[in-house]
Structures are given as structure tokens and as C-alpha cells.
């Protein structure tokens, strides 16, 4: 019997990679905390999960988890190291692609740089089921770039007028200027799931009135002192306090995400995401 190489079996996988861009509009609402803990929860549920730290200026994920890598994406694009060499192992087998502080604007990478990035992802020998992309706060070109390329946009919103307003502004720009029409809502730092639903209804009321989009409720992460403590210990709450309120909510969120129908892409290979990114980038600016 001929043994198949890991990359061949990788290409033969029937499940497509699902790319989820995590965005927020306003900063400080817990976008990175949601990305990290959802990533760990997905990995713990048995999905091959990768978290791309695309908050490129700040490279927050590593800080939140107390993990460091000697190299980052900029070294991969320069051809100094392979993507596999920069991956950081997070809790439960979550793979983290460290952000590159040297790459300040993904949307304005040169063609050879973009091609280098696509190649780097296509050379990865391991399968990926979910690729979460932790984008920067605000409505920069980069956020648009990732949101357009991903199959799902997950919006993290907390109960502050500025968070709701900025989330609405981001939805409006992505829809009116870039044709994104489906968004997923996650409430964070609210006292209860009921309050999370209420926040969702508030935003839905405005989007239904002024925009032609679908806004789906995905879940609520409650405000949780144990999450704060976990941040202080540079650990994921899903790892340090798996029985905490927020960790249980992250597991529920992961269940909801895994139960959703996947958007079909030709293979489970993240290079397709990068190719979509490059195409999206061609239309930016
Ligand atoms: N559910 C929660 N319960 C309690 N505290 C939380 C929760 N979510 C986030 N926080 C707190 O909010 C802080 C900011 O979170 P985080 O860094 O994830 O936000 P962010 O939106 O990614 O910020 P930035 O826009 O600056 O990247 C965390 O350090 C944590 O202390």
C-alpha cells in the first residue's frame, strides 16, 4: 500500500476551511479576547483551528497568551523562514500565526509580497478547519481587506453607545462600499445572555431600517472577573478557568459556529483565503 504524504491527504480533505474575520469597529471591546478564547474552544472541540493575529500594529494575541515567536509574518514574506516555523502552539492545539509589526498595511503589500504570503500558506502541511482572523479595531483598509476575503464576519459589540455606533459604521462601509451582506453578532462584557440579545435587537433595529443586510445573532460572552484574571496571567480563560461563565459561553459560541453550514471552497486549504484576500486587495483604495 502506498502511504500518502500529509500534504496530499490535506488536499484530499472534503471539509472546506472556514475563515472568520473578527472585527469590532471600536477598540477595547474584547475582540482579541473573543478571538483567542473562541479559537481555544474550537480547538478543544476537535477542530483544527488557526488564529491569524492580523491586528498588525499591536500583535496582541501573543501578549494575551504570554507567547512569543522569534520570527513573524514579515520574515516569512522575505523568504527567511517558512510559515510552519513561525507558528506558535497555543492551548488545546490552537495554532497561532503571529502578527508582523513590520507589515503595517496588509492592503498595500506589493504583488510579490502578496504572492509570497499565498505561497507560504499553500505550503503548510497541516489541515485547517477554521481560520480565525483577529483584525484591528476601526475601519482601516486592512479590516476591509480581511472582512471581504473571509466567509464570515464576526462583530464583537459591548454595551456602550460608541461600540454600537462604530459597529454600525463598520457594517455600513463593508456593505455599501464592498458588498458584504452577512454579519454575525457577538455581545461581550454584558451581565447576561438576555442583555446580549437586547443589544443585538438594538443594532438590528437600525440595520433593518437603513441597510439591506443580514445580521445574525451568534452569542453572548458575559462580563467575567475570571476572564480578567486570566488576562493578567497571560492565559486564555478557556484554558485557565474552563468552568467559568465566560469559558462556558465560549464553548457555546464554538458549538454555534461549528453547527453553521460551511461555505464551499474547493479544498480545505487556507491559500484560497489568501487568494481571495489578494483579489479583494486589488479592489481597495
Ligand atoms: N467578557 C469579559 N469579561 C471581563 N473582562 C473582559 C471581557 N472581555 C474583555 N475583557 C477585558 O477587556 C480588556 C480588553 O480586551 P481585548 O484586548 O480583547 O480588547 P480588544 O477589543 O481586542 O482591544 P483592541 O481594540 O485594543 O485590540 C481585556 O484585557 C480584559 O481585561
Automatic annotation (TrEMBL):
Keyword flag Zinc-finger: no
Keyword list, A-Z: ATP-binding, Nucleotide-binding
CDD domains: FlhG-like
The CobQ/CobB/MinD/ParA nucleotide binding domain, residue ranges: 20-234
One protein family per Pfam: CbiA
Keyword Nucleotide-binding: yes
UniProt name for this protein: MinD/ParA family protein
Organism per entry: Thioalkalicoccus limnaeus
Taxonomy of the source species: Bacteria, Pseudomonadati, Pseudomonadota, Gammaproteobacteria, Chromatiales
Amino acid at each position: 500500500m502506498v502511504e500518502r504524504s500529509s500534504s496530499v491527504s490535506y488536499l484530499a480533505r472534503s471539509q472546506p476551511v472556514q475563515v472568520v474575520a473578527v472585527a469590532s469597529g471600536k477598540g477595547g471591546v474584547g475582540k482579541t479576547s473573543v478571538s483567542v478564547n473562541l479559537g481555544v474552544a474550537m480547538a478543544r472541540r476537535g477542530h483544527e483551528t488557526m488564529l491569524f493575529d492580523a491586528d498588525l500594529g499591536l500583535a496582541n494575541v501573543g501578549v494575551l497568551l504570554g507567547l512569543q515567536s522569534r520570527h513573524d509574518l514579515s520574515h516569512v514574506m522575505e523568504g527567511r523562514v517558512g510559515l510552519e516555523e513561525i507558528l506558535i502552539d497555543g492551548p488545546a492545539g490552537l495554532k497561532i500565526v503571529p502578527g508582523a509589526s513590520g507589515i503595517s498595511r496588509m492592503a498595500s503589500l506589493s504583488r510579490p509580497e502578496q504572492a509570497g504570503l499565498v505561497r507560504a500558506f499553500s505550503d503548510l502541511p497541516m489541515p485547517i478547519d477554521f481560520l480565525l482572523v483577529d483584525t484591528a479595531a476601526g475601519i482601516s483598509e486592512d479590516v476591509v481587506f480581511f472582512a471581504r476575503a473571509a466567509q464570515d464576519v464576526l462583530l464583537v459589540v459591548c454595551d456602550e453607545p460608541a461600540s454600537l455606533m462604530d459597529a454600525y459604521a463598520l457594517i455600513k462601509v463593508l456593505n455599501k462600499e464592498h458588498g458584504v451582506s452577512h454579519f454575525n453578532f457577538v455581545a461581550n462584557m454584558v451581565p447576561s445572555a438576555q442583555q446580549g440579545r437586547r443589544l443585538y435587537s438594538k443594532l438590528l433595529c437600525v440595520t433593518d431600517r437603513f441597510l439591506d443586510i443580514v445580521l445574525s445573532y451568534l452569542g453572548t460572552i458575559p462580563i467575567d472577573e475570571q476572564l480578567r484574571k486570566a488576562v493578567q496571567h497571560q492565559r486564555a480563560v478557556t484554558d485557565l478557568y474552563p468552568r467559568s461563565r465566560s469559558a462556558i459561553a465560549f464553548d457555546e459560541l464554538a458549538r454555534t459556529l461549528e453547527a453553521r453550514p460551511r461555505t464551499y471552497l474547493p479544498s480545505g486549504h487556507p491559500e484560497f483565503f489568501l487568494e481571495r484576500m489578494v483579489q479583494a486587495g486589488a479592489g481597495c483604495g
